Amino acid sequence: MNLHHRNGNSRKPFSVRPVRKSLRSRLPAFFSKKRPAHFVTLYLAITLASFAFLSVIATYFVFLHGLPSIDSIEKDVLPESTVIYDRNGGELYKLYREEKRTYVGYSEISDRMKEAIIAAEDKTFFENPGIDLKGLVRSVLNFAFGKTERIQGTSTISQQLIKITFLNDERSMERKIKEAYLSYLMNAKYSKEKILELYLNKISFGNNAFGVEEASKTYFGKSIKDVGILGSTILASLPKGPTYYSPYSHRDRLMGYLYVYPESDENEKVLLDTPEKLVEYAFLVEAFKSVVQNLEITRKSPEDAEVCGLSQGDLKNPYRIDSDGCANIQYKDFLALLNSFRISSASGATLSGSGISGSGAETKRFLEYNTGRKDFVAGRLLEDGKITAEEYKEVIV
Do the Cβ atoms of 352 and 335 come closer than 8 Å? Predict the structure, then answer.
């Protein structure tokens, strides 16, 4: 719109432009005025704290309201078996309802078993507050960067006990929140020793053996207080998957296994899963045992060790072995090292198609070892300094 002065002498037009509001004028009043930076920081801190507080309240009423009291975990009656004795006090047989269990106190459980179950299921059991915060953060980051398809937070011994006592196996955020909350409360109320005692008496070891005492009697025919290192690594392997690692139906997954194959065809494997086959290939079996037993393992740091007595000729994967036959191996890679051993029949004996022979068509064969769950547990114990290198090798072979 152009306007002109009435005298008509000057016709300089001028425009009326809309006044734009400045950015400061459009901000909330608190920010539109010049204020010291610490006032703004305080305002934001209060806002975030209020949001966090409201989130906690909402989480409580949505997920945590109405949960059972943590006190009931100790009052929860663990169904035990009814034992029938003869006139001399000898055990005749047991009667049980749904779960075959014999409850034992913390002091009645061997230290080896306690150490093995902690190594297998929850390395930071005595330090964590019932939740593995570091593992959870690592899991979230792995999910965020696409390394895993879902958040797989590590489940502590405390969380496992809460799940089997109060909750179910449903994989949901709601269950994980409840599990973590009750686990934290339980650790605030009970000692670690009591929690471990309840856990070892509650969990299933497969074949209808509930609790560590019944499991020890089922698989070894003796009380848990008398179980040594090998038995402890076996029992500590089972809670991960009582059926999957069953010593009756899937012994290979639990104990590991040896196998032999000819140089000409690696797929032509012969599992050494019977006494007869172990005798047939006794030379290779003894050679493998000798290689493992001659290893010298020296702890270098919490993460790795120096392993001596290695020869690249006995390994199918390349390792950086020095002139003294030593290599630095991380504890987490010990299973890979065991799986890499390949013992050749060319090192001192000839084998025919039916085994060791001094005549006939000679066939070069290799023996390899496939690790089992108990080897993983033994490696964790070695890493934690709970067993010596010699004890570790005895578990392996």
Answer: no
> What pLDDT digit, counting tens, does each position of 230-264 carry?
999 999 999 999 999 999 999 999 999 999 999 98
Q: Are strands 351-352 and 270-271 parallel, antiparallel or unpaired?
A: unpaired
Count of helix runs (H) and strand runs (E) in the chain = 17, 13
Q: 226-229: list long-range contacts, CB under 8 Å, 24+ apart.
A: 226/110, 227/110, 227/112, 227/113, 228/110, 228/112, 229/112, 229/116, 229/378, 229/381, 229/387, 229/391, 229/394, 229/395
Q: Which one, of 199, 195, 217, lies nearest residue 208 by Cα?
A: 217
Which amino acid makes up residue 41?
T
Between CA 183 and CA 181 the distance in angstroms is 5
Alpha carbons 234 and 251: distance in angstroms, whole number: 10
Tokens of 229: 């290192």
Distance between CA atoms of residues 220 and 110, nearest Å: 14
Q: Identify the DSSP state of 238.
A: G
Residue 183 near residue 158, CB atoms below 8 Å: yes
Closest Cα to residue 396, out of 169, 213, 226, 229? 229
Encoded tokens for 161:
């006990």
pTM, rounded to two decimals = 0.76
Q: Which of 100, 358, 127, 372 is nearest to 233 (CA)?
A: 372
Give residue-wise pLDDT tens across range 310-369: 999 999 999 999 999 999 999 999 999 999 999 998 754 444 443 444 333 468 899 999
Buried/exposed 54-64: b ≥16 CB within 10 Å, e otherwise: eeeeeeeeebe
Dihedrals phi, psi of 13, to nearest 5 degrees: -75, 155
Question: What torsion, rounded to 10 degrees, do the Cα atoms 150, 376, 331, 343 define?
Answer: -120
